[in-house]
Design brief:
The protein is α/β, with parallel strands linked by helices and about 300 residues long. Helix content is about 40%, strand content about 25%. It has 11 helices and 11 strands. It has helices at about 15-25, 45-55, 65-80, 95-105, 150-155, 175-180, 195-200, 225-245, 250-265, 270-275, 280-295; strands spanning about 5-10, 35-40, 55-60, 85-90, 90-95, 110-120, 120-130, 145-150, 160, 170-175, 205-215. Strands 1, 2, 3, 4, 5, 6, 7, 8, 9, 10 and 11 form an 11-stranded mixed β-sheet that branches. Strand 1, helix 1 (about 15-25) and strand 2 (about 35-40) form a beta-alpha-beta unit. The protein is globular, with a radius of gyration of 19 Å. The chain starts with a strand and ends in a 9-residue tail after the last helix.
Length: about 300
């Protein structure tokens, strides 16, 4: 049985970005006891690169991010690690990130996660943090619903800790908490698995973002969206709304609006119309229907 921290990186066909991530993992001021890369069916030079560097690689079919996290947490459980540090291949941790996270992981906590900052604008959050109600869920009716910068987050936080986190970009999870909560649900496939696991872990212990622990990530706001991503975003968000949040019909409506807005900004506003009433409407309405039914599955069929 092993002790200490297992660092897990999930990858798919991003060898160059994975190499950068590993470089920063290997220069941590507090290094993890072991690194394992979960390779979701890469067809580029990923396996060759990992072999040359002597880094442990577990290759499986492309079962999406959810399947990757499930496998990494499973390994940490089976091999007896104390904690598992999870991250995607396109981001990378600050050199002191794991040391700072480890210092903050106190009794009563299930997970502490890094603050995810834009790699080209290191004061801006890549994924805005939600303002929370007294029940700890994202507020819906407020003049300000999101925190967009590190400075804003620091004003809202208490002792460097904010009581919400965006998995999986530097999330340090106690294996004991993962055992109690159960593993990541693989059928979420590529969206929603991170929020589902956040809410499940919060039933076991406290979950925080550590504002002084930084994880750098590309700006995702300009990445084009394809039919599959739109489908799983809408369907899985509907499922999460019903599982964990209040005012579900309102949140579902806003989910569709948000999806159309994201498509418009990234793909062009004509594409938003096509998802609503044009050639892509089947994708949107299937996502809505299956989301209302609560169908968690890898079921996108184009």
């Amino acid at each position: 049985m092993k002790q200490g921290i297992l660092a897990v990186v999930v990858t798919h066909n991003r060898c160059e970005l994975l190499t950068r991530c590993l470089d920063f993992l290997l220069r941590q001021s507090k290094p993890p006891e072991e690194i394992v890369v979960i390779n979701n069916g890469s067809t580029d030079k990923t396996v060759e690169m990992l072999g040359q560097r002597g880094i442990r690689c577990v290759t499986q079919e492309n079962v999406g991010s959810a399947g990757g996290w499930h496998r990494g947490i499973e390994i940490a459980m089976q091999e007896g690690f104390d904690a598992v540090w999870l991250m995607d291949d396109d981001g990378y941790p600050d050199e002191h990130a794991l040391e700072l996270l480890s210092q903050k992981l106190a009794p009563g906590m299930a997970c502490v996660s890094s603050t995810v900052l834009c790699e080209d604008e290191k004061t801006r959050l890549v994924f805005p943090l939600p303002l929370l109600s007294t029940d700890g869920i994202p507020v819906l009716f407020s003049s300000r619903r999101k925190i967009f910068t590190l400075e804003q987050a620091e004003k809202e936080a208490s002792e460097d800790l904010y009581p919400f986190a965006h998995f999986f970009n530097g999330a340090l999870i106690l294996v004991a908490a993962a055992r109690a909560a159960g593993n990541v649900e693989r059928d979420f496939f590529i969206f929603g698995d991170e929020l589902d696991y956040l809410y499940r872990l919060r039933r076991i212990g406290k979950v925080f973002t550590v504002l002084s622990a930084h994880h750098y990530h590309p700006d995702v706001t300009q990445r084009p969206l394809n039919d599959m991503k739109v489908y799983y975003y809408i369907k899985n968000t509907f499922i999460l709304n019903r599982r964990y949040l209040d005012l579900v019909p309102v949140r579902n409506f806003l989910t569709v609006v948000a999806a159309l807005f994201r498509v418009g900004r990234r793909n062009g506003w004509t594409e938003s119309f096509h998802y609503l009433l044009g050639r892509n409407r089947r994708v949107l309405w299937q996502a809505v229907g299956r989301g209302l039914q609560g169908r968690i599955a890898k079921d996108f069929n184009g």
